[in-house]
Amino acid sequence: MLTDPIADMLTRIRNAHLALHKEVSVPRSRMKASIAAILKQEGYVDDITLGDKDIVLALKYHQGRPAISGLRRVSKPGRRSYVGFTSIPRVQNGLGICVLSTSSGVLDGATALEKRVGGELLCEIW
């Protein structure tokens, strides 16, 4: 049993990029599907396929280099991190995104700022 499924998803993506895989499979949940949809919307992955029990992400590369150069889990099971909409961080000076779990669903930082909602800061991707 996994203690932190979101950190497992981020680690699988990081390891697949380091090994230059074309796709990676992660166990399915609604939160991970929402995070995968944000990654596709922001252009960090080419495509996502939702299966019955898993999510397959087609990874994106630019001239042999991964589109995702780094990702970090911010809120962990031992220490949750909550932010208001006024303190949503800018990741890599605006070159990356942060993902928040809000009352309006799982959103990226820019959308949460537009909707003026805060929440749990799940991860940062750049």
Structure description:
The protein is α+β, with helices and mostly antiparallel strands and 126 residues long. The model has no long low-confidence stretch (mean pLDDT 96). It is 26% helix and 34% strand. The protein has helices at 5-18, 30-41, 109-115, and strands at 23-27, 45-50, 54-59, 61-62, 65-66, 71-73, 82-83, 97-102, 105-108, 119-125. A hairpin with a 3-residue loop joins strand 2 (45-50) and strand 3. The strands form three sheets. Strands 6, 7, 8, 9 and 10 form a five-stranded antiparallel beta sheet that branches. It folds into two domains: 5-66, Ribosomal Protein S8, Chain: A, domain 1, CATH 3.30.1370.30; 71-125, Dna Ligase, domain 1, CATH 3.30.1490.
Short note summarizing the structure:
The protein is α+β, with helices and mostly antiparallel strands and 126 residues long.
What is the CATH fold-level name of the largest domain? Ribosomal Protein S8, Chain: A, domain 1
Whole-angstrom Rg:
14 Å
Structural class: alpha+beta
CATH class of the largest domain: Alpha Beta
Cα(first) to Cα(last) distance is 29 Å
Which assembly state applies to the chains in this document?
Answer: single chain
Share in β-strands: 25-35%
H and E string: HEHEEEEEEEEHE
Query: Which residue ranges are poorly predicted, with pLDDT under 50 across at least 5 consecutive positions?
Result: none
